[in-house]
Design a protein that fits this description.
Layout (H helix, E strand, L loop, with lengths): L9 H13 L7 H12 L4 H16 L16 H19 L14 H19 L4 H9 L9 H18 L2 H12 L10 H20 L5
Helix pairs in contact: 1-3, 1-9, 3-4, 5-6, 7-9, 8-9
């Protein structure tokens, strides 16, 4: 999700992603930095926190006024990020726990496996609601989503690629409408770097596609 060097710290990755999704700013406040440090101590992958941030931003995106940042501060994401951390830890613990000898229950799914399954279900539901996209959904299942990811970053990439592919499958007038809608909200500040601007635009575009297709959080 981030284009920072692989050597970047957890804190740098989260700050970079938050400011890109927010659409403005160069640094975090002291209170936000304190919260970021607390998240770093949780020891979860960057993508887990980034998912909480993106979900918080997506919920606020369509209420933002022109020229206003989508999120005022990192603390606005706290509830969603904490929920993602809790969910990740719960699923990670279940997936790593050895099965009981006498138990016939299936092994618990990991965070990535759970997200992958929910995304498949959401796309199947979409294909049922919009038959014109059923071919593209089948194609995605056989290509982009053919393998269940083992890393959070791969799952993020699969999800983004899936919605961008669905955008390309829409008729041109609808694609144009989605593009215009994505670029009309949360106008970026000129001080944003090229990297941050790219992340910001991708976030808003994927959010606009999900909104157009009526696909809720997966």
């Amino acid at each position: 999700m981030s284009l920072l060097p692989e050597s970047a710290s957890f804190e740098e990755l989260v700050q970079d992603y938050f400011l890109a999704v927010r659409g403005s700013g160069l640094m975090l406040s002291a209170l936000d930095a304190e919260l970021l440090t607390a998240w770093a101590r949780e020891g979860v992958p960057f993508e887990v926190v980034a998912r909480g941030i993106s979900r918080s931003a997506e919920k606020a995106l369509w209420d933002a006024r022109p020229g206003e940042p989508v999120l005022r501060n990192l603390r606005a994401c706290r509830r969603q990020v904490d929920a993602e951390i809790k969910k990740y830890r719960s699923l990670a613990a279940g997936a790593s726990a050895p099965p009981e000898p006498t138990s016939k229950r299936r092994k618990a799914l990991s965070w990535e496996e759970t997200r992958h399954a929910r995304l498949i279900d959401a796309l199947e539901d979409l294909a049922g609601r919009e038959p014109t996209l059923s071919h593209q959904v089948t194609r995605l299942r056989n290509t982009v989503l053919a393998r269940v990811p083992q890393e959070p970053a791969v799952m993020d990439a699969q999800e983004a690629l899936s919605f961008l592919a669905l955008l390309r499958a829409l008729p041109f007038p609808q694609r144009r409408e989605v593009w215009r809608g994505a670029l009309s909200v949360g106008t970026e500040q000129q001080v944003m770097s090229v990297r941050a601007r790219k992340v910001s635009r991708r976030f808003r575009l994927v959010a606009a596609v999900r909104r157009r297709l009526g696909v809720k959080e997966v």
